[in-house]
Amino acid sequence: MNAYASWPVDPESTATLAERGLRLAVLDAADEAGLKRWLLADARGFHEVTPTEGTLEVQVEDIATDRVTGVWDSSQADPDTPVATVRSWEMGLTVPGGAALASWAISSVTVSPTHRRQGIARAMLTGELRTAVQLGLPIAMLTVSEATIYGRYGFGPSARQSSYLVDTQRAHWTGPAPAGRVQFVSPESLLADGPAVFERTRDRSPGEVDRREIWWKRTLGLLPNEPDAHKRGIRTVRYDDADGAIAGFALYEIALQNVSQPGRLKLVDLVAATDDAYAALWRFVIEMDMVSEIEAPLRSVSEPVAWQVSDHRAVRKTSERDHLWLRILDVPAALGARSYAAAGEYLLDVTDDLGFAAGRFLLTVAADGSGRAHPLTGAAPADAVEVALLAADLASLYLGGTSAVDLARAGRLTEASPDAAIRLDTALHSAYAPHLSTWF
Predict the structure, then answer these.
(1) Which of 9, 202, 402, 410 lies 20 to 30 Å (CA to CA) from residue 188?
(2) Which residues fall within 8 angstroms of residue 127, CB to CB, at 6 or more apart?
(3) What is the pLDDT of residues 367-419, one digit of tens each?
(4) The domain 337-428: what is its CATH number?
């Protein structure tokens, strides 16, 4: 078992909730009945359909290795079901430069409608942040259903995602014709080969996180007890380069209106370790017979495929929204983990109401793009680029997908000199748009 799964509950949050007659506790991984009740509370919190017993069995396997925390109210009619939930675990986050930084993933944050406005969410979330600090993790992260909640805890939107709709009758392929080949493979083969290909892409994907085995099995339709898994009709293809080595893969589903009408292809996942693999896989789905459009959710806000077809408007964004939110807890460790695009010295004066990231920090970037940061108590170097900002806004800037100039113009970042935001943007710039291809 992972050490964090049974890490003691945060004493400060425990005491806060106990004053209100509530109990904060971590569930034992062996307590299957307790985990199922927790899952029922989690589903209720997100207004989901009540899971069947078969679904609960699959979900218990999903969360068994995580830190599963709940809040219980012994005075309610059903004292064994928690009134609030949160789940967390350690997971690698890709940062600019390609390193995977160990971070604290937070998920399943719910509070029962019967217990709102009692400070439960604050107690749980601040407790999670203190737990991450105790575990030595410099960043916490989550994907959110509501965008108005997490800024008050120092989280900032750090990577966005887009959904695309491709009109295949207009999107005639004009891109490269790679020398390798696309071929159908079994889902089982991608369960074995896919993770290594995904890892090869991460230097181009700031914002990506580890894909756990249960994610692969679910996405590939390999969980036999998953409801309706057999109905999805998942198709799996891979691209082998000219030397016969796997360099990418795609998962898709097709919904046909009827045998005489074109259907819609849903691109579930497309992972390419090379530009050739990207081109070959996109060309394969765009040129699919009996398909008039492609729905591609959870893609990057910047997709090269729009430049690989004859009609740029045939590749249309149907939505764009925040996806990954970060919370910096250890500023020197976080800043030292990523690479930068411009050498220099940068003084960051960070305000943090919760205290985790507050202080003045000097970031020194070397000519090779490596960075080193430390708290600064004295005067800053005369040529340092100096800005003042909130911890949440530093988190938004961290992956290079948010503009410091925009934050300055919005009044969220204060510059000590007229060009400070521009110079900071130059240093933080990522050649690849931050992107997270999954939920967690």
Answers:
(1) 202
(2) 9, 10, 12, 13, 14, 24
(3) 999 999 999 999 999 999 999 999 999 999 999 999 999 999 999 999 999 99
(4) 3.30.1050.10
99: tokens are 């390193």
Residue 154 pLDDT > 90: yes
Residues 151 and 416: their CA atoms lie apart, in Å, by: 25
Q: Which residues are catalytic?
A: 150, 440
Of 3.40.630.30, 3.40.50.80, 3.30.360.10, 3.30.420.40, which CATH number belongs to 11-137?
3.40.630.30
Q: Note whether 169-313 and 337-428 share their fold.
A: no
Q: What is the DSSP letter of 386?
A: E
Note the pLDDT tens digit of each residue in 54-68: 899 989 989 999 999
For residue 264, count CB atoms less than 10 angstroms from its CB and return exposed for 0-12, middle for 13-18, buried for 19 or more: middle
Give the ranges where 254-402 is alpha helix by DSSP (H).
Answer: 275-286, 331-337, 391-398
Residue 230 has pLDDT above 60, yes or no: no
- Span 264-272, mean pLDDT? 98
Residue 251: which of 347, 332, 186 has the closest Cα?
186
pLDDT value, residue 200: 98
Instruction: Please give the full DSSP string across 327-356, using - where no structure is assigned.
Output: EES-HHHHHHHSB-SS-EEEEEEEE-TTSS
CATH match of 169-313 with 3.40.630.30: yes
139 phi, psi to nearest 5 deg: -140, 140
Give me the residue spans of the domains in the chain: 11-137, 169-313, 337-428
User: Inter-axis angle of helices 391-398 and 420-428, to 10 degrees?
Assistant: 50
Average pLDDT, the chain: 96
Binding residues for acetyl-CoA: 109-111, 117-122, 145-146
pTM: 0.96
Burial bucket for residue 184 (CB in 10 Å: 0-12, 13-18, 19+)? exposed
